[in-house]
């Protein structure tokens, strides 16, 4: 059994597997003691993992009652309220994901960007445009701007996820993403990239990645095609 203050590696994933079995069977989640024994983890570690599972909308716990399972999640994929690589987002729908880097270049921030994102005077940027495909159908376009501190490597693998690049050669690991969703009509360029009619409605997300230090790690402008690709959000009802 693990130490009371730590969770075993992989505990959240193993707990999610228990949730899946219970949801498919239509049965309640086992209680904390049974889960601790089944998962070979301490009760505090299991309790913490259950809190995280509830925050993600999988369960609802009530003192003195069975844990309620959100079985509707069995039919949910492409969750945009959780931060994952865009390829993983596509793969969660059961479709084959691929990605093409349309453009990648080193740049300097504009004066407006320096002010808006509180950048250091000598900061540089890696700007990329990428398109993701689901079964060869273009579904996501992202314009990413990753903040590079002085002395960062000049040769950067732009095919990697934006938060991995930020962690390795940027300002550090990203802890939060602030997301501003909206909608727009596709521009001529985006219509070509996503193989859509010009002016076709699309979901947009303006994203700001925040590092542990509180500094801006990156920002991105995403365009998501809603044609044959459904996006989902899970919101907890506070009472």
TrEMBL record:
Residues 5-72 form the HTH gntR-type domain. Keywords: DNA-binding, Transcription, Transcription regulation. Pfam families: GntR (PF00392), UTRA (PF07702). InterPro entries: Bact_HTH_transcr_reg, Chorismate_lyase_/UTRA_dom_sf, Tscrpt_reg_HTH_GntR, UTRA, WH-like_DNA-bd_sf, WH_DNA-bd_sf. GO terms for molecular function: DNA binding; DNA-binding transcription factor activity. Gene3D superfamilies: Chorismate lyase-like, Winged helix-like DNA-binding domain superfamily/Winged helix DNA-binding domain. The keyword Metal-binding does not apply. One of its GO terms (biological process) is negative regulation of DNA-templated transcription. This is GntR family transcriptional regulator. It comes from Gordonia jinghuaiqii.
